Amino acid sequence: MAIGVLSLLGFQLVDSAFIARLGTAPLAAQSFTFPLSFLIIGIQVGMGIAIAALISRALGAGEQARARRLGSLVLLSGTVVIALLALVLWWIQAPIFLRLGAKPESLTLIRSYWNPQLLSAWLGACLYFGYSLFRAHGNTRLPGVLMVVTSLANLALDPLLIFGVGSWSGLGLPGAAIATVLAFTLGLVVLGWRLMGKDWLSSRGLMGEMRLSLRPFAGIAGPAMISQLMPPLAAMLAISAVANLGEAQVAAWGLANRLETVSLMVVLAMTMSLPPWLGRCYGAGDWAQVHQLLRLALRVVVIWQLALGLVLAVASPWVAQALSGNPEVRGDLAVLVRFMLPSYAALGVCMLVVSAGNALGWPLRAMVMSAARLFVFYLPCLWVGSWLAGLTGLAMGAAVGNVLAGLAAWGLLRRVLSSPRRRMAEYSE
């Protein structure tokens, strides 16, 4: 699963690196779309967390028929919800981008990328719901393999559609989004073919199951979606602050965001693969296994992220040179990498605690922790740092905010794990 996440996030980083070769303006245009892309991802991840938790609990309790009904419900409802959200974001895109700090003359360039990107976001959400279904049944191999396949397809199509071949000059910035559309379409075809051979879906009793599962689904999905929607809101506020510093800074911030997601590959893989196992233990009442899984996951996250962050911080000038050809963007990106990447060890702890909370029956605590990470620690530190020392202060402030959030999350989880096993159910909300 980690290899799949690495490939998926890696192609997004390379995607931005290709766009950076088009110039600062196209890269900045793409960067302005990130918060809205994160908004769509937040909704889909929140729904995916809920359905993976419910299906894994049903399987853990031996309720096979109910697990099949739940699988059908998520595929139907998820695709419709994300399609409606994409239509709304397409309709109101101009005022949103202007509020984020984009200049009016940049809207045409942003729109040329955003319109096909919305289609790719919907296709990606459909893929994600399929991945969630496989993960809930304990199969993380196929999602990982498909992530690699779609990433390789995207990487092959990117240079062809962006820069062209032979006498054809390519599509420029929109070509990056269209390449993703084609890659995700390939993934959906393979996923649908593999689902046909599984007895994981059922059309019988869907209305009754919807009435039965609506409340527990909302109890998990509601807080989970709110938790997942807070990062896009924070990203909008953060990029508004960065936009005040200049176009090159926006471009550097966009590349740093892509690098952030790639560097967090192990954490992201764990937040996707760990909850179904925790959900099964929750359904079976095996709290000893829950304790063991969480301690192991936290140890891996801290050691891996700290080592990776320090290596990338030392290599920040070369990393920036590999990702951008603009000297100003390279300098700003090196500063962001140097200060922010090591702090992702603490950020990973917080992300893991939030993900575990949704699977173990304390979603409200997870939601509060997610809100505190962004709006109590991260954004205030970022704003103060930006006000005091520009981009360097912004990077230092973001790093301090991540560390404080990680310490707070560790304190919350330690209090839960130190409780007697028989009292763990008291944390269920």
Automatic annotation (TrEMBL):
- Compartment(s) of residence: Cell inner membrane
Membrane-spanning residues = 32-58, 70-93, 113-134, 146-169, 175-196, 217-242, 262-284, 296-319, 339-360, 372-389, 395-413
Q: How does it sit in the membrane?
A: Multi-pass membrane protein
Domain of life (superkingdom): Bacteria
Record's GO cellular component terms: plasma membrane
Q: Name one Pfam family in it.
A: MatE
Alphabetized GO MF terms: antiporter activity; xenobiotic transmembrane transporter activity
Transmembrane helix listed as a keyword: yes
Q: Which UniProt keywords apply?
A: Cell membrane, Membrane, Transmembrane, Transmembrane helix, Transport
InterPro entries per the record? MATE_fam, MdtK-like, Membrane_Transporter-Flippase
List, alphabetically, the NCBIfam families matched: matE
Query: Which PANTHER family would you find in this protein's record?
Result: MULTIDRUG RESISTANCE PROTEIN YPNP-RELATED (PTHR43549)
- The molecule here is called MATE family efflux transporter
- Which organism was this protein described from? Halomonas eurihalina
